[in-house]
Known about the structure:
By secondary structure, this protein is mainly beta. Helices cover 7% and strands 36% of the residues. The protein starts with a helix and ends in a 24-residue tail after the last strand. The relative contact order is 0.08.
Amino acid sequence: MIRVIFSTLFLFLMSMPVRAELPTLIPRKTIFCNPVKTSPEISPDRKYLSYLAPDEKNVLQVWVQTLGKDDARKVTADKKRGIRAHMWTHAPDILIYAQDNDGDENFHLYSVNLKSNKVQDLTPFSNVRAQPLDVNRDFPDELLATLNKDDPKLFDVYRINLSTGEMKIDTKNPGDVVSWHTDPKFRIRICSSMTPDGGAIVRARADTSPLTAKRFGSIPVKAAIPSTWSKGIWNRAKKRRLPPIPAATPAKYWSIRSRMRRRRWPLPAKRDSGSRSIPG
């Protein structure tokens, strides 16, 4: 009888689910805390290393140190949210960073002069979002930035003098441009806009002053598409190349489709949507 009871109890215990121990939870601070150091950048003259790191109050700041030396110093003094993005310019000892106001995403661009420790708001406008576009070593005192100053939905290109803080309009957005690109002479030459089917229209204008050019002109497809594309784009899923782009085919406006299933080449020679005028 006792043997039957023990056998029954043993079978009962064996049938009970085994409850494994839960793994140790990762502390919330480990996931969401500030990094020790992040976003390193080397100055164009190869003299300084900059990075983001928290200060004594655990607020992310921009720090700069001389390459090869242990002389890091804090060059910003944000009080609350911390700085998340910065970049060097080609102006001697000047870097810029972006910061908004309590998370409203209306970022201002600030310059920091390492010699004078002067911090300047380059875009002191309320309810306006500023974004750095480009810098150029041949124009060290200039910064191109995009701002939605005149229309919240459109970003125009402005040219900012890093020494004086003077800002003037460079290129007006005609209403559909989402990205801008400069040439080696630091002029806006190419822009792109989205199409209703998810593609992109790329437009370029002739090699003239951006202040007088009123319309994007005609250039061959080869001038805007890398030469490696002439061999065709490699499709990893199909394990073969798509038909190559005819490099010699001229096109006033061309479309670069984001959907891989669109494989008809050559592309249309003209598009109505490309006839917009781009004011200087």
